[in-house]
## 1
Amino acid sequence: MIAFKNSFRELLRYPSAIVGLLVIFILLGVAVYALVTIPYSEAIRLWRGGEDVWYQNPKYASPEWFNFFTSKKEPLSFLANTADGSMTKTVTSSTADISTVEMTYSFDYTYDDYPQEIILYFSPKFNEKLPFVSIAWYTPDGRKIRIADIAVDRKSSYRFSQDQKLQKSLRNEDVMQALFVDPHAENPTVVKGQYKLVISGTTFEKDSDLDVQFVFHGKVYGLAGTDKYRRDILLPLLYGTPIALAFGLLAALGTSVLTMIIAAIGTWYAGWVDELIQRITEINLVLPFLAILIMVGTFYSRSIWLMLGVTILLSIFSGQIKTYRAIFLQSKEASYIEAARAYGASDRRIIFSYLIPRMIPLLIPALVSSIPSFVFLEASLAVLGLGDPVLPTWGKVIDDAITDGAIYRGLYYWPLEPAALLMLTGLGFAMLGFALDRVFNPRLRDI
Amino acid sequence: MSQNNKLLRIEGLVLYFNTTHGPVQAVDGVNFELESNRAVVVLGESGCGKSSLAKAILRLLPRNAGTYSGHIYLEGQDIMALGEEEFRQNVRWAAISMVPQAAMNALNPVIRVGEQVAEPAIVHLGVGKDEAYSLVKKMFQHVGVPEDFISRYPFELSGGMRQRVAIAMALVTSPNLIILDEPTSALDVLTQANIFNVLKRLKKELGVSFILITHDIATSSELADDVAVMYAGQIVEVSDAHRFFAKPLHPYSQKLMASVPRLHGDKEPEFITGRPPSLIDLPKGCRFADRCPARFEKCVEDPPVIEKDGRKVKCWLYA
Amino acid sequence: MVTDTRSKVVKGEAEGARKVLLSIDDLHVWFELRRFGFGHAGYVKAVDGVTFDVHSGETIAVVGESGCGKSSLMKTILGLYKPTRGKVIFDGKNLSELDSAGMHWYHTRVGYVQQDPYGALPPFMTIERILEEPLIVGGVKKKEEREQRVRRAMEEVKLSPVADFLPKFPHMLSGGQQQRVVIARAMIMEPKFLVADEPVSMLDASVRVEILKLLRGLQESHHLSVIYITHDLSTVSYFSERIFVMYAGNLVEKAKVRQVLDNPLHPYTMALLTGTSEPDAKNAETFKEIPPGEPPSLVNPPSGCRFHPRCSKMIKGLCEIEEPPDFEPEPGHLVACWLYK
C-alpha cells in the first residue's frame, strides 16, 4: 500500500500524467453519466429507431454551437404543442355539432437562414367526420400566406415543403425560402421578426377535438448535430464512451494479464510446456490478425463481445510473450525463489506470488499504453463495416458518415466528433502510460 | 619527503549528488597525500563514500552530480583546473587509471579480451594495432595471464583471470597511479591471494602507485603502505600501515580492527552497534559520536584533524 | 575462548551419545551436459562421493572455493536437487523415498539462510508478508497464530521495534537488517536444522560479526544443527565444531575446527590457510606461496587425487593414479591424502 501511494505521488510529478488522468476521468465521468441516464435497452431503442422516434429532429443538422463561430446564424429547432399548452388553442362551439378550433403560434425569428422543414402533426378525435383545417402563415412584414386547406385524418401530418400545390401557389420550389425571404427585396434576405402560424380547424361531431404539434426543423441541432436518420449524434458519442472504454480496458487487461501468466508458466515449467508456448507464439506472429477478425465478422457474428474475445485470443500469444519470457528467465533465478522452493512453496504459488508480482511494474504502463490501440481497433472494425450492428459506438458513427459521403457534403462535424473523442482517449491513456513508464522504470527517469 | 615527492595531493575534495531528498554528501572535504610508488588503502564500509572518492578523482561524474570542488594535485599540477578534453587526454587513463568495482564482470562479453585491453592503448597512446597488441602481451606477462588468452572471450576465462585482464587494461597506458575499487571482494581466497601477489609485483617492478578502495581490512594489509579510514564522507584517520595495523588511533578504526575475525588466537571479534549516519542528513559535530564508546562533551563540535607523530586523526581525544 | 564456548554447547554430552540428525552417504550429484539440447556430452560431477554425518545440535562448516560443488551439496540437502547416487538421510528418513507430504514436512524441518540478503528477499513484499509466507505454505491456517510467530521470530533476530519493521520493504533496510529478516524467515518454522550459505560474505566487516553472533545464539538456544557453507576460513572458528574442506566435488579433510586451523594436514587446506589474510602490515612485504593453477573442471576432473596437478608434495606414481581414501593420522582428523598412508 505504501509503495502504491508513493508511486502515485511520484506519478503526479509528471504533468503528462495529470493531463492524462484528467482526460481519463472526464471520459469515465461521461461513461458513467451515459450508463446512468440512458439505460441499455433505451439506448438500443433510440439508436435503432427510425422516423417515429426522431421525427422531431432535422436531418444533417450541425451542432448548435456552430452559431458561435459563424456570422450567419442558422435556425435552431423547436416544437410547440397544443396538448401541453405551448401553443394556444381556443375552441368555440357554433352549433351542437360544429365547433371551430383556433390554434395559433407566434415566434421570434432572428436567424440568417431559413429552416429545413416545418411539419404539423395532427391528432384529431372524431368518429366518422374528419375535422377540417386551413393553415395560414403571417410574416413580420405583414404578408399573409395561405398554406393549405385539408381534412385531417387520424395521425395525419402536413409537411410544408412537400406540398406541390403550395409550391405552385408560391411560385417557388423551395417553400421555406418563400416563407422566410422577402420576395420583393433586392437582395433576398431572411425577414427577421415575429412570425405567426394560424390553424383554423372545424370539427363536425359533438365530442370531436383537434390537437396539433408544430415541429420546426432548423439547420442546427443539439450539442452534436444529427445524422442522415435524424438521430442525435450525442447519443452514440455518449454511449460509445463506456463501450470504447470497456472494449479497450477488457482487451488490454485480458491480453496483458493472460500473456504474462502464460509466459510465467512457460518459463517456470520449461521443457515441453515452454517449447509449445514458444511455437504457438511464433505461428501466431505470422497469422494475419485483421484478416481473421474480418473473416469472423463476415461469416460468423459482428457482436462486439465476440470480437473482443477473438481479439484477446489472437493477442495473447504476441511478441510480448517473448519479452516477458526473457525477464522471467532472469527473475526465475532470483535467490528469493530458491528460498521459496526451500520452504516448500508450490509451483503455482511461485508463479503467482513470486514471479508475476515482480512484473507488475512493467505490466501497468504497458497495459495503460495498449488501451488506445484496442479502442482504435474497435473503431477500425466499425469503419470496415464490421461494427456491432446493435450498439451505438464511435466507430459506427464514422462508418455511417463515410457511407453517406459526409465529407463530400461538407458535414465535417459528423465523422470528426467521434474521431476527436478517439484521439482524446488515445492521448489520455498514452500520456498516462508514458508517465507510468517513468515511475515504474526508474532507468527512464533521467532521459 | 619534499613536496615534489608527492604523486597525488588531494585538498578539500567535495562531491555531492543531487537527489529528490536533498544533496548526498558522498565526499565531504577529503584531504590526503600519496607518494610515488606507494599504495594507500582507503578503508570504509559500504555507503561511506569511498567509491565516490574514486569517481571524484577521475572526474567520472554521474548525471546527478552536484557540488564538485577542491583541489587534486597530480605531480604538483592541479588537475581540477583542467578542461574536460585536456583531462581526458592527459589524466584519465593516461596518468591515472582505474579498475572499477566488479570489473571482471564488466568486460564486454562479445569482444576478445586482447582487443579490450588494447583499446585504451590505441586511444590514449595513439599507437597502431600491432604495437598495441605487443603492449597487451607485455601487460599479460606482468599480471600473469597466458599470452594466448589474447584471442579468448571473457566467458572462457575464470573470475581470477578476468580480474587480471581488468588490471592489465588499467595498466596498458603505463599510468603512474591505479585506483582499485574492491578488486578482490567477489573472489575466492586463493584467487585473492594471487591477485595481491600480482599487485605487489607491479608495485615492485613497475613502480606503480595504488589507491586501494576496500572494506576488507585483512586483505587490505596485503598491499597497504598507508591507510586512510573513511567514515560518512570524511577521512577520519591517515596513518602508515605499520602503526595503523599495530594500533589504530581513531575509535572507529579501533572498532573496525576489533571486528576482524582471526584464524588464530582467542580474541572474540566485536561489532559496532548502530548504523552509519545517512549522507543526506549528517549530524553536527563528530559524525561517529553516536556510535563511539569514547564520546565526551567535546564531540558535539566538529573535531579538527590532529597531527600526531606523522599520523593524522580527526578526533577530539587527541586534541 | 572460542573452544570454550563451543564445549559449552555440547555440555558434557559424550560425542558418540549425540543423535545423528543428517547423514550423507556416498552422495553423487551429477548434471548431464547435452549438446544442442539433446545428445549426451558428459556430466558435471558437482558432488562426487561425499559422506558425512551431522549430529543434532552440531555445527559443521563446509569450506571450499567457488565451483567446488559446495552449493550443489547444499541444494541437494535442501531437497532442491535430486541425488544421482547415494543417500541423504534426515532423522532416519531417506529424502529420495519421501512422498510430497513427506517433503512438505522436511521443508518445515530445514531452514535456509542465503548469501545475498537483498536478493533473497522478494522486493515487492513487506517484511511481514515475507515472514508469513513460509507459515502459509507450511499450513499455519490461523492469522493470529501467524502474526504471533512472525513477531516472535523478529524479536529473536532482534529486529525491534517489530511494528516499525513489519510494513517495510526490503530495500528500506540495511544489509544487516535484511540478513536478520532472512534468518528470521529460516527460523520461522522452528526447524531442527539450518543450512547457511555464506551468510555474511556480502556484509560489511562490522556487521558480519553481529550476524555470526546472532546465528550462534540461535543455534545454542534452539539446539540447532547447522551446515555453514563458506569460502572464508577466518569466520569459521567462531561458528563451527567441525570443518569439512571441499575440493572439486570431494571432501578432502574432515576434522574439528582447531585441528584444521592449527594443524592442517591436506596440502589444499594448508594453501587455503596461507591465502587467508590477517590484518598485519608485514603482509605487504612478502609474496604468498599459493599453489599454481586453478580448480579443475568438474566435467573432467584429474585422475587420482584431484589436487595433484597443483600439489607441491605430490608423490609421483601414486597421487595421479589412485584416488586417496580417508586416512586418520590423529583421532577424529580425517584427510584424503596419500601423504598420511
## 2
Amino acid sequence: MDGVHDMGGMDGFGKVDPEPNEPVFHHRWEGRVLAMSRAIGVFRAWTIDTSRYAIESLAPAIYLTRSYYEKWFLRNQNLLIERGLIDVDEIAAGHALRPGKKHGPFTLADVERVTRRGSYGRPAPALARFKIGDRVRAKNIHPKMHTRLPRYARGHVGVVERLHGAHVFPDSVVAGKGEDPQWLYTVRFDAQELWGAEADPTVKVSIEAFEPYLEHV
Amino acid sequence: MIGFGDDRLAVDVASSVGYILPMAAHDHDHQDGSNLSEMELRVRALETILVEKGYVETAALDRIVELYESKIGPHIGAQVIAKAWSDLSFRQALLEDATKAVSTLAQVGRVGEHLVAVENTPQVHNMVVCTLCSCYPTDVLGLPPVWYKSFAYRSRAVKEPRAVLADFGVTLPAETEIRVWDSTAETRFLVVPMRPAETEGWSEAQLATLITRDCMIGTGLPKKPSEVG
C-alpha cells in the first residue's frame, strides 16, 4: 500500500537527532510491549509480515503521532482482538473475562528461540530470472496491500548486485496466499537515477528486491 | 488473512469503547513512580489479560526484557568486527557468509539467518537504513536506537546520506562513494568499518573498545586510539 510508512525520500522530518548514551528502553512499558510481541510471536497467530502490515494499516495520523512502541502496542492489541485471542470487553475491564484459547503458556524455556531471528530462506521454485550484473527495472506497481518494494525505487533502473536465494514472499503471505517463495536480489541504483540530475553523483542506494518486483530492461 | 479494512476496524472498535485515547501528550516520565502514565496502565492491563488467559508467564517476559537490556547489544558486533580486523581469514569468511562466520565465534554463538557484512574501504562508505519500518541486525547490535527508527533518518538516508552523516558529525571526502543499503527484506546488514591507524599489535579486546554501534550502522566512524586512552 502507498502508505505513510513508505518514507524513503520524503522531506520535512527535520534533522536526525541521536541521543547520547541512549537507554535500551525509555519507559518500563516499552520493554513489556517488546516482550509481549516476541512471546505472542510463537503462537503463530500472525507472521512478521502480517505484523508489519498491521502497523502500516494504522491510520496515517496515528502512525505519524504515536511513538514506535505505542504503535507496537496498538498492533498487538488489534491483532490479538482480530485473531480472537482476547476480547474488547477484557481490554475495557483490564482483566481476563474468559479462559484463553489453546495457545501457550509462553514460558522461560521458550525465550531463547524468540530472541534469535528465524530463517526466511526457502527452496527455490524455479531458476532465477536475473543474474548478477543484469540491468533491471523496478516495476511501476502500486499494490493496495502489503509490499516491500519502496515507492522511491519504482520505475527506476538498477543493477543486480547480489543474489540471496529464494525467500518467503511478504506480499503473498499478507494476501493470505502462503509463502510463495521468490528469488531475492540486492539491486543497486545510482542516486541520480532515483532523485534526478541534482542528486549527489557519489551516492548509490540498494534495495532488497523480490523477483516479482523486477523486469528486464 | 487480514485486510486493510479489518485492521482499521480493530482500531475503530477500540476507539468506540474508549481504550484508544490520545496518549502522546500524557506519556511522560513520572519520576516518583506514584503516578503511572496512561501507556504504563494500558500495557499493564494487556499483560494482565495475557497472563490470566494463560498465554504468557510473567517471568518469561521479564527474561526477554533482561536479555535486551544486558545481553544482546552492540558489544556482540564489536567482537565480530575486532575479529575481522585481526584475522584475515575470518574477515573473508564474514564477507562471504556473515551468519555462518559469526556463528563460529564461541563468545557469540549462533546468530539469525541472512546476515550480510559489508566492508568500508578508502573508496566506499556503507550505511544501513530501513525506509519501510525498522529492520536492523538485532542479533549482533541489539535493539535499534530511536534515531534509527525516526522518520527523519528513514526518509533522508536514501536521498541525502551526506547530510544525514553531517547530523552525526561525520564528514567524508567528497569523492568517497556512499553506499546506502535499504533493508527491505529479511537480509540484515552489518558494516565492517576500516581499522583505525596506529592500532598495530592491539588485541581483539583492545580493538573492540574502538568500535561503536554507529560505526557498524555506517553513521559513525570507529574511535581513534587517542579517544580511548
